[in-house]
Amino acid sequence: MNIFKSISMNRLGIKHRYDKLWVGIVAGAVIPFVMYAVLLSISDALAGVEGFPLGGIRERTLTLIALLSNVIPMQVFYRRHWDDSMRGMVFPTLIYAGIWIYRYGSELLNSF
Prior knowledge:
By secondary structure, the protein is mostly helical. The protein contains four helices and no strands. The protein is elongated and about 55 Å long.
């Protein structure tokens, strides 16, 4: 009887303790919120600077950049072959993308 048979493996045959679905879900849900807070702080600071041509960055752009910040941890998970964590990041990312399209989709389509 092989003792390693009960351990689920990834494509390299190794299972890291953080290669779990819930780790990806938590990372995918928390990272965009943190990135949005950082980007909002930067945007507010730039809006107060005289001579800055944009006068701050639009909320729509900030939320999209925050949503796309999930690409960075997804790439880290991919390089470490944490397939289950990558799979977990997909769920909150798709939910956030759906919310973004629901919130700003009509605004984008009416601008053409």
